[in-house]
Automatic annotation (TrEMBL), chain A:
Residues 2-108 form the FAD-binding FR-type domain. InterPro entries: 2Fe-2S_ferredoxin-like_sf (IPR036010), 2Fe-2S_ferredoxin-type (IPR001041), 2Fe2S_fd_BS (IPR006058), Beta-grasp_dom_sf (IPR012675), Cbr1-like_FAD-bd_dom (IPR008333), FAD-bd_FR_type (IPR017927), FNR_nucleotide-bd (IPR039261), MRET (IPR050415). Its cofactor is FAD. Keywords: 2Fe-2S, FAD, Flavoprotein, Iron, Iron-sulfur, Metal-binding, Oxidoreductase. It comes from the Bacteria. The keyword rRNA-binding does not apply. It comes from Hoeflea poritis. This is Ferredoxin--NADP reductase. Coiled coil: none annotated. Residues 264-352 form the 2Fe-2S ferredoxin-type domain.
Automatic annotation (TrEMBL), chain B:
GO terms for molecular function: dioxygenase activity. PROSITE patterns: RIESKE (PS51296). This is Aromatic ring-hydroxylating dioxygenase subunit alpha. InterPro entries: Rieske_2Fe-2S, Rieske_2Fe-2S_sf, Ring_hydroxy_dOase_asu_C_dom, Rng_hydr_dOase-A. It comes from the Bacteria. Residues 35-142 form the Rieske domain. It comes from Hoeflea poritis. The keyword Lyase does not apply.
Length: 352, 385
């Protein structure tokens, strides 16, 4: 069961002049299995700040194949209570409450696989993509990685020196193309392109870095607006949708409030037992289950992390957001309970 | 039952009968990765080509994402081998016979006059049949099975035995591109390529750049790997004696001459990189296509290297026989061209297979690879591989 565990902070590092912080965790030997992670997965931290419980998910930015300890890099979010708390207060030796790694936005490397991985990162969206590309470089020796990385200016690029080190180590298998929306006039940083990662940038990137291995995969992680633009750009350039993998990070992701939920009765199978849960009008399934005394898994409550995912085996729901699910998941009946409101009066839901 | 005449491990029939070739086409050439060209043959979105891979004709096209797609070149309507990419953006693949049109993922998107010709067509089950395509070592490869697995599963183990060349950085030397036919079975041509014993004899005058006595070779899976160092005379000053500017560091000079299965020979030396693709056309007729890459250097540096090395080539590379001993001007044995020598030997061997008196003598140690290749062919044809 995915519970919170207390982990010690091994080390912290300030990044980009104190606007982000890397937190490295000490995972004791008896917990390494619980905390084994796939490249791209995230962990959830639980804090109690001013008496309120707050949970946030952060991608593990280290690769499980590089031998580095589990770590996250947290960028300050304007008025973000948890991100600023971490940046201001978390230090070496602290104990934090951490839920084990989770998430379906992953790149699982294979020694005999030969792929071209295209990564499109915006801001702190680099963190899962960094873990993925480093894993592909470490554990998929015949594959190639191309990263397009959008930031405001050279000073706001997190994991920049780690990327530079990978470029030195893998000059024939990795390219990094920085896109800056507001480059400083006084910086000597050599970036690839000014502006945003739009269709024109993607087209230019493909023409400069055509796939060598023809099994090409595309990973997108950034603010919602960037994700939408990159996805549209990729599709316009003939990339089939089943090769595009994405996860939204913060910012204004698209919420679809157009459908309001009806009052319903949900039959919920959780941990082997079935419970009937009444769902109020416009209530999410997750709220209804918690009100009904159940203890279902959940984390971010914003449709990003996927911790609350379940399978809908009867009835219909409307999902307000579903960034954590790929189209193929949805087709198989996967739903995010934190984002689902009933459309039919009878629902059947199954966890696990 | 009459006893079959054998050419070592294979019956002579394997080199002369259509039935054997049919089995090989199916079990070997239609079930392995097939060379389709150089990377640069398809370099822009919308470009396409069709290649024959055993019994399959495979269509390759590049999308605007610059990823290649491969399909069996069979329109799902009447099976016509006519697919081509059309339109200003080349987003559609069409068969001109009845204009059935597919998208770049092979989905059937339009059937002309669908309403009154058909009522309706379930397009979802009439997509082009996918095949696999990949790039490796600067070459395009296709496989008829879309789930063939990665090309590394096929070539990965032999790759460390190949030359240290960065093939992608070399450029094609267009004048060296040749296609010719050899009047011999494809296996005769392969066996000639991997016969180590003949190097010092048939090519005594033409391949004196390398020290055949120090050759290292062997099979890695179905693929044959081969390496030999420069001869003393050639190696004394590689930078001077090499005919073209070097493509590997001077201390790594030598010749890697693998024969990848089936019939994909490479010739990787310190100054050139070539492919030698063997395709059976008939039991006694084989097509050989060669293409060569050299250093991406100026014409001036090629000219300079040619004049520096001229003395070595003049003094050390000759025909097998002196002109006065030849059987006339066109005798390959005086040509000084090792390819001409090989073609001659292959064709003369094929001719003798017709004779009721044909019989082979013992295979030499240096002919071990010939026996090895015969065994691999036998294993494929009999379904053991």
């Amino acid at each position: 069961m995915r519970d919170f565990h207390r982990l010690q902070v091994l080390e912290t590092r300030e990044e980009i002049d104190g606007r982000a912080k890397t937190v490295v965790f000490e995972v004791p030997p008896q917990r390494t299995e619980t905390f084994a992670w796939r490249p791209g997965q995230h962990i959830t931290l639980r804090f109690r700040l001013n008496g309120e419980e707050l949970r946030r998910s952060y991608s593990v930015s280290a690769s499980p194949f590089s031998g580095e300890p589990m770590r996250i890099t947290v960028k300050r979010v304007k008025r973000g209570r948890v991100s600023n708390h971490i940046n201001d207060h978390v230090k070496r030796g602290d104990t934090l409450e951490v839920m084990p790694p989770f998430g379906g936005f992953c790149l699982d490397p294979g020694h005999r696989l030969r792929r071209t991985h295209y990564f499109f990162a915006g801001g702190s969206g680099i963190t899962p993509l960094f873990a993925m590309l480093n894993s592909a470089l470490c554990a998929e020796p015949h594959s190639f990685c191309h990263l397009v990385y959008g930031n405001q200016d050279a000073g706001s690029i997190i994991l920049r020196s780690e990327l530079d080190a990978l470029l030195v180590a893998h000059p024939r298998r990795l390219t990094v193309s920085h896109v800056l929306s507001r480059p400083s006039l006084f910086s000597s940083f050599g970036f690839w392109r000014r502006g945003r990662i739009d269709r024109a940038a993607i087209d230019a990137h493909f023409s400069e870095n055509p796939p060598y291995a023809q099994d090409a995969q595309y990973y997108v992680c950034g603010p919602g607006a960037m994700n939408g633009a990159v996805r549209a750009g990729l599709m316009d350039l003939d990339v089939p949708v089943n090769r595009i993998h994405m996860e939204s990070f913060g910012g204004n992701q698209m919420i679809d409030d157009s459908v309001s939920g009806v009052a319903a009765n949900a039959s919920v199978r959780l941990n082997g037992s079935v419970t009937n849960v009444p769902v109020k009008k416009d209530q999410t399934l997750l709220q209804a289950m918690r009100d009904g005394g159940l203890d279902p898994p959940f984390s971010c409550q914003s449709g990003v992390c996927g911790a609350c995912a379940a399978k809908l085996t009867g009835g219909k729901v409307h999902m307000r957001a579903r960034m954590a699910l790929e189209d193929a998941d949805v087709a198989k009946g996967r739903i995010l309970t934190c984002q689902s409101v009933p459309v039919t009066e009878e629902l059947s839901v199954r966890f696990g | 039952m009459t006893e079959e005449t054998m050419l070592h491990r294979l019956p002579v029939d394997a080199y002369t009968s259509q039935a054997w070739l049919d089995r090989e086409q199916k079990a070997i050439f239609s079930s392995t990765w097939r060379y389709a060209g150089f990377v640069e043959d398809i370099s822009e979105p919308g470009q396409y080509m069709a290649v024959q891979a055993g019994l399959n004709n495979i269509f390759i096209v590049m999308g605007r994402d610059r990823r290649l797609r491969a399909f069996h070149n069979i329109c799902r309507h009447r099976g016509t081998q006519l697919i081509r990419a059309v339109g200003r953006t080349q987003k559609a693949l069409t068969c001109p016979y009845h204009d059935w049109t597919y998208d770049l993922e092979g989905n059937l998107v339009s059937v002309p006059d669908e309403d009154h010709e058909y009522g309706s067509v379930d397009k979802s089950c009439l997509g082009l049949k996918p095949a696999a395509v990949d790039l490796w070592r600067g070459m395009l490869f296709v496989h008829p099975d879309p789930d063939a697995g990665s090309i590394i599963e096929w070539f990965g183990d032999v790759e460390p035995m190949l030359g240290p060349h960065n093939v992608e950085e070399l450029v094609e030397y267009a004048d060296a591109r040749k296609t010719y036919e050899v009047r011999a079975n494809w296996k005769i041509v392969v066996e000639n390529y991997i016969d180590v014993y003949h190097l010092s004899h048939l090519h005594s005058g033409t391949l004196a750049m390398y020290d055949h006595a120090k050759a290292e070779y062997g099979f890695v899976g179905p693929h044959f790997a081969f390496w030999e160092p420069p001869s003393d005379a050639y190696g004394a000053d590689i930078q001077k004696n090499a005919p073209y500017p070097l493509v590997v560091p001077v201390e790594q000079a030598g010749a890697w001459v693998p024969m990848l299965f089936p019939g994909i020979g490479l010739g990787e030396s310190e100054s050139a990189w070539s492919v030698f693709v063997i395709t059976p056309l008939a039991p006694d007729l084989t097509r050989v296509e060669t293409r060569t890459r050299v250093a991406n250097a100026s014409e001036w540096s090629f000219g300079k290297q040619a004049s520096r090395s001229v003395a070595f080539w003049r003094d050390h590379i000759t025909g097998k026989y002196a002109p006065e001993d030849g059987a006339g001007e066109d005798d390959p044995m005086v040509s000084g061209d090792f390819t001409a020598e090989d073609i001659y030997a292959c064709e003369q061997q094929q001719k003798s297979l017709q004779s009721p008196y044909f019989e082979t003598g013992p295979a030499a140690k240096g002919e071990g690879p010939v026996l090895g290749h015969q065994q691999i062919v036998l294993d494929y044809v009999e379904g053991r591989r």
